[in-house]
UniProtKB/TrEMBL annotation:
Its main location: endoplasmic reticulum. InterPro entries: Ero1, ERO1-like_sf. It is a peripheral membrane protein. This is ERO1-like protein alpha isoform X3. The keyword DNA repair does not apply. Pfam families: ERO1. May function both as a monomer and a homodimer. Residues 79-97 have a biased composition (Basic and acidic residues). It is found in: Endoplasmic reticulum membrane. The keyword Signal applies. Keywords: Disulfide bond, Electron transport, Endoplasmic reticulum, FAD, Flavoprotein, Glycoprotein, Membrane, Oxidoreductase, Redox-active center, Signal, Transport. Residues 79-112 are annotated as: Disordered. It comes from Aplysia californica. Its cofactor is FAD.
Length: 439
């Protein structure tokens, strides 16, 4: 039996790994794979040129497989900005466009708060000002888990995700080590009381995790699950050098690399736990999609091609029905449950630490890894925004809690949410391949 054949409950959840294997490999994965190949989901808007805000840049990576093919403006075959339809009965769409046009009138994303306010003071009526203020309060009431790329930056570009798959790039050594260390050691939480942990890596020692409250463990498991997923993909689509040392090499599954990273004997017993964290992260994002079902069912998935949009909407509906009917969802109401000053403080640290991780993604020294790192962190941040907005933020959450009626997601957030979940789904599916190879 391969060590990657996990069993039993996912830690901090009541759902079993076997249940998720079956749900994912038989139902979710095939549907998502075909949805993510559609135009709406394959073009992702991103700024890969942002400066690293924490240390001087590791200079651009010269590795060939780190290169990202950017779409030229006339190459993106979709329209992304629908004009508000005054005749529409769809309140969800109306809210969205009212909000977006208000944001535009405020002066755009590259203005400072003060300039926006003074522009408002001189040109806009009191009634409009009150409306802007209420939108601002609304925006500020949503927890912003990610620092989003400035919508008005000239450096924003579209990337075709299918032409730039997440796979082995050769990015290794000091640069990724610094990123992962900074994420785990500076942005994951530590127990208040010192625990007698043993050898490295301390963040994974069982005593270290058990000494922390649920919220802090959840934070760690989410990041570790993402890390596992990234590393599974590089093993699953690995570039083997050409046998004679010349030529382009061949892509394939690398069982040895997978074993080096996840076999308990080669990882001081940490491998299976890292794999289980992948299932944990999957469950959290699955639950976010389920909570967002009423919102997503109203989404137009606009590309400018009416037939394509209608077909995609049907496909998403079929996928969401499976997500919604899953009986064993992660229960986010167990988090931030106690109504106390300390809990409020913890909630704000949770958001702040996650935001920092989203900024660290601008320090990744390989463009392909940065693209997928930014997308997956934004997708996870969007999942957290869904889980902790609306009813649950008001403190009366239940697994059936719904989102506030004025809740909004941008196209980029939706694309990131689906693609990030697609990555986790593809990792769980890849475990099946490694199990077969190890037999
Ligand atoms: P790393 O994966 O760098 O791990 C560092 C240390 O973290 C390990 O020694 C271990 O102690 C601990 N650790 C490892 N896994 C976990 C886990 N799941 N949970 C908790 N702790 C863990 N490379 C590619 O080829 N393609 C990519 O698309 C790609 N994307 C990346 C995206 C980001 C954001 C980053 C930071 C790196 C990316 N990399 C990618 C690099 C890749 O993740 C590894 O860093 C690299 O292969 C070197 O691996 P390593 O063996 O040194 O261990």
């Amino acid at each position: 039996r391969c060590f990657c054949k996990l069993s039993g409950e996912v830690d901090d959840c009541s759902c079993k790994v076997e249940t998720l294997d079956s749900l994912n490999n038989n139902q979710i994965y095939p549907r998502l794979k075909s949805l993510l190949a559609r135009n709406y989901f394959r073009y992702f808007k991103v700024n890969l040129k942002k400066q690293c805000p924490f240390w001087s840049d590791d200079s651009r990576c010269a590795l060939k497989d780190c290169h990202v093919d950017i779409c030229q403006k006339d190459e993106v075959p979709i329209k992304t900005e629908k004009q508000p339809d005054n005749e529409s009965n769809n309140q969800h769409e109306k809210n969205k466009y009212t909000m977006e046009s208000n944001k535009g009138e405020q002066g755009g994303g590259d203005c400072t708060e003060e300039r926006q306010l003074s522009a408002l003071d001189t040109t806009i009526s009191d009634e409009k000002k009150a409306e802007f203020q209420s939108w601002r309060e609304h925006d500020e009431s949503l927890p912003m888990f990610c620092e989003v790329d400035d919508e008005h930056s000239n450096d924003l570009e579209y990337v075709d995700l299918l032409l730039n798959p997440e796979r082995y790039t050769g990015y290794k050594g000091l640069s990724p080590r610094r990123i992962w260390r900074s994420i785990y050691e500076e942005n994951c939480f530590k127990p208040e009381k010192s625990v007698g942990y043993g050898p490295e890596p301390i963040t994974e020692a069982a005593a270290f995790l058990e000494a922390m409250c649920l919220e802090k463990r959840v934070f760690y498991r989410l990041i570790s699950g993402l890390h596992t997923s990234i590393n599974i993909h590089l093993c699953d689509q690995y570039l083997f050098p050409a046998k004679n040392g010349f030529g382009p090499g061949t892509w394939g599954h690398n069982l040895k690399e997978f074993q080096r990273r996840f076999d308990p004997e080669k990882t001081d017993d940490h491998g299976p736990q890292r794999l289980k964290n992948l299932y944990f992260t999957y469950l959290v994002e699955l639950r976010a999609l389920s909570k967002a079902v009423p919102y997503l069912e109203e989404e137009v998935f606009y590309t400018g091609d009416a037939q394509e949009d209608a077909d995609l909407k049907e496909g998403v509906k079929d996928f969401l029905a499976i997500v919604k009917n899953f009986p064993d969802h992660f229960d986010e109401s167990q988090l931030f449950k106690v109504n106390s000053q300390e809990m409020l403080q913890l909630k704000s640290e949770f958001v702040h630490h996650f935001r920092n991780i989203s900024r660290i993604m601008d320090c990744v020294g390989c463009d392909k890894c940065k693209l997928w790192g930014k997308l997956q962190v934004l997708g996870m941040g969007t999942a957290l925004k869904v889980l902790f907005s609306g009813d649950s933020m008001a403190g009366d959450s239940t697994v059936n809690a719904s989102l506030k009626s004025d809740f909004q997601l941008t196209r980029t957030e939706i694309v990131a949410l689906f693609n990030a979940f697609g990555r986790l789904s593809s990792s769980i599916h890849a475990l099946e391949t490694f199990r077969a190879l190890a037999r």
